[in-house]
Amino acid sequence: EGWKDQYKTIKFGILSGENEKDRIARYTPFEKYLENQLGVEVEIFTAGSYDGVIQAIAADQIEFAFFGSSSYAAAYTETNGGVVPLVSRLQKDGSTGYFSVIAVRCDSGLSSLEDLKGKTLAFADPDSTSGYAVPYFNLSKQGYDPKTYFGATPFSGAHETGVLGVYNKQYDAAATYITNETNGIPQRMVTKGMIDEGSICTIWKSPEITSGPLAARANLPEDMIADMRKTVMDIPENDTLAFIEMTGGKDSTQDGWIEVDHDRYQWIVDMRDWLKKQRRGG
Amino acid sequence: MLVVEQLSKVFGDLTAVDGVSLAIPKGQMVGVIGRSGAGKSTLLRMINRLTDPTRGSIDNEGQDVTALKGHDLRLWRASCAMIFQQFNLIDRMDVLTNVMVGRIAHTGFARSMLRSFTDQDRVRAIQALDRLDLVPQALQRAGTLSGGQQQRVAIAKALVQNPSIMLADEPIASLDPANAVRVMEALRSINRTDGLTVLVNLHTLDTARSYCDRIVAMKDGRVHFDGAPRALTTEKVRAIYGTDDLSDEINEAVTSTSLQTGSCRPQRQAVGT
Amino acid sequence: MLVVEQLSKVFGDLTAVDGVSLAIPKGQMVGVIGRSGAGKSTLLRMINRLTDPTRGSIDNEGQDVTALKGHDLRLWRASCAMIFQQFNLIDRMDVLTNVMVGRIAHTGFARSMLRSFTDQDRVRAIQALDRLDLVPQALQRAGTLSGGQQQRVAIAKALVQNPSIMLADEPIASLDPANAVRVMEALRSINRTDGLTVLVNLHTLDTARSYCDRIVAMKDGRVHFDGAPRALTTEKVRAIYGTDDLSDEINEAVTSTSLQTGSCRPQRQAVGT
Amino acid sequence: MTALSPAIEQFEINYAAARKSALRTSRLSIILFAACFLGASWIGGFFDMTDVTLPDGARVSMWKIWAGLPRLGEYLYKTLPVLHWETLGTDIANWFWRWKVWLELLIETILIAYMATFLGVIGAFLLSFPASRNLAPNDFVLNATRRYLEIVRTVPELVWALIFVFCFGVGPLAGVLAIGLHATGALGKLYSEANENADMRQVEGIKASGGSWFDQVRYGIVPQVVPNIISYTLLRFEINVRASSIIGFVGAGGLGQEIRVAMSLQEYTDLSALFLIIFVTVILIDTISEKVRHRIIGLTGQGV
Amino acid sequence: MEKVTRDLDTARRQVPGAFESPRKKRLIHAGGWTAFALLTCWCLWAFDFSPSRIVNGITRFGGVLSFMFPPHIWETWGEWQEILKGLGETVAMAFMGTFLGAIVAFPLAYLGAKNIMPVSWFRLGVRRGFDSLRAVEQIILALIFIRAFGLGPLAGILAIAVSEVGTLSKLFSEAIENTSKKPADGVRASGAGNLQTVRFAILPQALPVILSIILYNFESNTRSGTILGIVGAGGIGFLLADRISAYRWPEAWTIIFLIIFTVYLIDGFSGFFAPAYHRREGKWQVMKTFKPVSGKRRLSGPRSSGAKGSRPSTSFQPD
Ligand SMILES: Nc1ncnc2c1ncn2[C@@H]1O[C@H](COP(=O)(O)OP(=O)(O)OP(=O)(O)O)[C@@H](O)[C@H]1O
Ligand SMILES: Nc1ncnc2c1ncn2[C@@H]1O[C@H](COP(=O)(O)OP(=O)(O)OP(=O)(O)O)[C@@H](O)[C@H]1O
Ligand SMILES: [Mg+2]
Ligand SMILES: [Mg+2]
Questions:
Q1: I need a labelling partner for A99 at 20 to 30 A (CA). Which of A118, C154, D63, D123 fits?
Q2: Does this UniProt record's set of keywords contain Transferase (chains B, C) (predicted)?
Q3: How many CA atoms lie within 13 A of D12 on its CB side?
Q4: Are E195 and E297 spatial neighbours (Cβ–Cβ below 8 Å)?
């Protein structure tokens, strides 16, 4: 097998993700699994920022990386299309992505975007897909230009802090994400006792954001990419423990993987371009 | 009358001061001499209560000094002013503030934290400075003065404390001869004019002889001689200082800073010219 | 013969040394006196070339010192050893290394960076220390020694430089009288035994009188008196030092550190006892 | 050489012994240090090999550092703006296209740093006295304040920021408190070290005149340590300005956030522009710090 | 009463400056304090320091603190391993970063020190160079190195090292400038060349300060080290931030305690490493100043006393 002679070690970049479960998830069993299946050495780097992984993949320093959808788009732009998506996540409820939402206090009397005119909307973090890019883009497309429509659009720094800010009445609304009706940032905060049950409602929901892909450098040998795709697709069957461990431990909601291609993410690439233009234009 | 009774101080294994008893009448000028390490400084520090005695008592005019605490202790310290070899002034503050610090025991918390002394204190300080010819330097930083000037500032500070006793720990050891004379003259004038009791540690025997009414010599923490300067004979001096490595006879003049006052001066003058 | 010709040094507006000419025969011990700021230190520093002269020339045994550069300059510095008032030792290094630094002009780059002096240098250094009774302190850190010991270390360092001239800038001003005697005795012995030319700045007139063959008095950067100690009369002293604020007559004894050597000692002894 | 004096003989013995022990100590420390160094560089990946693709497509294994050296400037190169001499004005205007926003953010950053430094200085100043060995009234107070300072300093600003965002909600408040608290710890240690190095004679002078503990600190210590305090404080201020990215993390904006946005949107030339802005700020603070310190040191008259 | 007024008048005449400072000075003072107070108040308002918010926050903070006890003990070896590995990595990387930074900074610092490099334009240029290194965001440095060396500790270490060069050089320069000129004169007067003078007169004075600066920065790099996490090099700071982002307070506190413990260990270890130069030394001297140091200080005139002890002794970096 040709590529194994060339690539004796495979380097894997992993982002400690938007999702709290991903943060403390352990990838050691996954690493072992890959080494067993592929017969080459695997090195895994868990990074705290998109930028490092993007630079690394652009400079041919790593071969594969798990991205968020927005960071995949960033990597795509950075490398002029030098990355290919392999697989993405498939949840137990059959969904393959998540949604941006705008959350308000249920007792605030706000129930639609119209009510939010002139109010404060907190975005999560300029790096965040669901907490910033998607709501900003979609709101603009729907005719609510965030810059002028809202009174102020601060960044809260993180999803939880934004929702917390709404709960504490610092902000009127905050952009965050949910996976489905039972799982998402506000629901999880209720579980943790950070906010009261039924205190936060959502009044807007974006189109589905496809979960970020596992991507490979496009300049890798094709059979290598194919092998990796297959190996990852097979984890749920071949090594269930490693799969559960890498998707968030005992309360993992992930069912498996689906194969994806770049088209699925093109709109996010476009969205980023649009955002950049917006920024320049303003 | 300051009465020190069986006063001792032990540092670890070392008995720095060992059962010293002294009775010092009001208005006396006492010179304390002795080798380095004899316990002179420790004795003075205990009287001011900068160092707590291990044993023994200090009694001033019927007041038990060893028992004092808190504000009373601070008042006692103010009433027995201390002058140090290295002046111990606040280098970075002006002379006037340094002198006014002598009033600190009588200054309230807020006032002292804000460095806002009363006009009365100010007047007092300026008067003291005037007495020591230091008015022109009043607003200079203490650290920029010469050694002799600094020591006189320290004396001015001691004066505004309105003390009944003045303790001076080798006040002239860091000074050149000319300044040493000025400082010793100032101390003597305070002793004579204001009737203050003065206890002064000295390294230099001839200074002690010239200025003091009474000399107390310490050796290994004990009082080894106590009497008039006249009574201090060469043998006694030899016993106090031990043999010196410079010459086999104790050469008293070598340890002198040659404050040629009194009988000594004319002779030296003759030699010099 | 060290010949200084019309030597001047200007600092900004200030002429610190102003056209000084001196001829010093080999083996002479010269005392330089004068008020503070008279230019004594600057003169010595120029001879050692620590400070570059503004004008004038220095000539030693036919060698033009002012023209020296690079390695020759360093060798010149080594051959006219300098001793400072504040000792200027390396506090954190041991005494032995401090003395061996005297060999630095003859030590190669690598060796000196590694602080590895030759055994020969070490023997030399230890002999010099022995001469000054400092062998027991050889491995102590210089900063932990007493002032007198430090100054003697500085002299030992000067000795291992194997100098032909020894310059001493107020070597005893920071010392107590006993140590001052030791240091001056050491300088004199070097002058007498080894035949070195010694130039010593002194604040204290009587020390200069007692130890020096010749006295040079400076005032405002100029030589104001140059002759034998005997020739230095009271009027001349008064002119050199200006009037003093202590008394209307210049009281020479006051500025003395009373190194009672020679004729003075017996008389003082008599007074003391 | 003539006969050795007994002192020299004794010296030779002592010297040999001292030399031996010095050699032993230095050997031991060199070995220990080398072990630490090798261990750390091994963990740090200094000896790693890496596979690289050569321009002709071949894959070879090379020493990682050697392989990476030629690429060192890559990222920097991307941040350089294109400037032409003829169109310099417009090019620079293009480069600093967001200068209005940046200026605003810079001011915001400086204010946040100012506030944080202010809080940190107050805390550190008050606590540094009981935390100094030579001033603490008793061991309990000494240890309590020292432990407190250690804890607040050991926890990085970022972590305090996360904690305070949880407690105080989002916004500059949390950032100010976080940086301020961390600064308390870091400055408290430096201040107390300055206190410990102060000349105790001046304190004795106050004590002997009947001054209370507060008087002793106020007159004996404070005037001595003020220049140190000022220089540490200004250095801290500079660090706090640079710590603004952390404030960005908790949603208070600041230049750090702008850097992150520029990075994630791949606006590379913005990065160099922002660098210049911060650079100028740092130079300003550095220069002012120098000036102020020298002025305080050289102040004649009333002192502090 | 009359005497008091008379005394006051006399004193006033003698030292007018004692009773009131010049008008201009007072104005400057008042203006300065007002500006300071206004700025602070404005900041307080702008940053929303409302009392209710503070009280609320402190209550919540109390809650967070209450998770400190009992500390969390991880149950499986795997979890412990992760934490300990993070700690070990952090220490190793802080060590490497600080050490490399110090090695480069050490010679550069001389070029930025006034007493070594008299050519002022060059010295100022060098100093601005230090400033520029400090002005680069550490993440950017990390990215520069990631492009060259890939994800992993190497990039993190180099990022730390480069920014340490900026800080350490500045601090080293100050330490070198703060040395006394006297030993330098002494060594030069014996015929030493420039480098020899540095070696024998400057270095012994500056080295203890430099070492303590290095140790302090080593410690503080151990504490923060989040940059390492960002480049995918693990490290404890990253693990800690993750725990806090996930609101796992008890675990977070345990990690904090472990870091404090590690810093203690480093402190003890470094004390063992360089006992001769250890910082405590200075403190001992403080105790000793009570004793007259014979002849070491001559306080005879403004010139000799003006120079002493006024400059900051060791100015090193708050982390
Ligand atoms: N704080 C202290 N701790 C331990 N020992 C001390 C302390 N203070 C003084 N000593 C020791 O007590 C002895 C007496 O010291 P003291 O300072 O009273 O002597 P002295 O007569 O003043 O000497 P000198 O002339 O050198 O000032 C000395 O051996 C000294 O080392
Ligand atoms: N480096 C310098 N820069 C400017 N002025 C200087 C310098 N060195 C000395 N001076 C000035 O030159 C004059 C002569 O100084 P010098 O030190 O030679 O006097 P001195 O006779 O040694 O005095 P002292 O007895 O105080 O040591 C003084 O006014 C001094 O202030
Ligand atoms: Mg004493
Ligand atoms: Mg001089």
A1: A118
A2: no
A3: 8
A4: no
CA angle D80, D84, D87 (to 5 degrees): 125
Count of Cβ atoms closer than 10 Å to residue D17 Cβ: 11
Q: Please tell me which residue, D167 or A134, carries the higher pLDDT value.
A: A134
Query: Which residues on E lie below 8 Å from D263 (Cβ)?
Result: 139-140, 143
Q: Which helix (H) or strand (E) holds B149?
A: helix B147-160
Residue E76, sorted as left (phi over 0), alpha (psi -120 to 50) or beta, turns out to be: beta
Query: What residue ranges define each of the domains in chain C, with the CATH number in brackets?
Result: 2-260 (3.40.50.300)
CB C172 within 8 A of CB E294: no
| pLDDT tier, B116 (very low <50, low <70, confident <90, very high otherwise) | confident
Please enumerate in sequence order all residues whose Cβ is within 8 A of that of E72, keeping only pairs 6 or more positions apart, or say none.
E250, E251, E253, E254
Question: Would you call the peptide bond into D227 cis, given omega within 30 degrees of 0 as the criterion?
Answer: no
Closest partner CB to C258 (pick from B182, B203, B253): B253
Nearest CA to ligand 2 atom 25: C36
Please write the tens of the pLDDT for every residue from D168-211: 776 778 888 888 998 999 899 889 888 888 888 889 899 999 88
- 139-178 of C, contacting D, C-beta below 8 A: 139
CB contact under 8 A, C260 and B254: yes
Per-residue pLDDT tens for E90-105? 888 889 999 999 999 9
- Name every residue whose Cβ is closer than 8 Å to that of residue B122 and which is 6 or more positions away in sequence: B96, B100, E11, E18, E19
Q: In sequence order, what are the residues at sequence separation of 6 or more whose Cβ sits closer than 8 angstroms to the Cβ of residue D27?
A: none
Side-by-side strand order, sheet with A41-47: A41-47, A9-15, A64-66, A214-217, A83-91, A254-259
Residues with C-beta atoms within 5 A of ion ligand 3: B 41
DSSP, res C22 = E
- Cβ(C14) to ligand 2 under 6 A? yes
Residue B186: is its pLDDT beyond 90?
A: no
B267 closest CA partner among C272, C246, C264: C264
> Which one, of E171, E164, E101, lies nearest residue E138 by Cα?
E164
CB contact under 8 A, C135 and D8: yes
Strands C214-219 and C29-34: parallel
Which ligand 2 atom minimizes the distance to the CA of C38? Answer: 21
Report d(CA D162, CA C139) in Å as an integer. Answer: 55
Contact B174 E306 (CB under 8 A): no
For residues A62 and A9, the answer to whether their CB atoms sit within 8 Å is no
C-alpha B39 – ligand 1 centre gap (Å): 6
Q: How far is the CA of C9 from the centre of ligand 4 (A)?
A: 14
ipTM: 0.81
The answer to whether the CB atoms of D8 and C126 lie below 8 A apart is yes
**φ, ψ (nearest 5 deg) of residue E165:** -55, -45
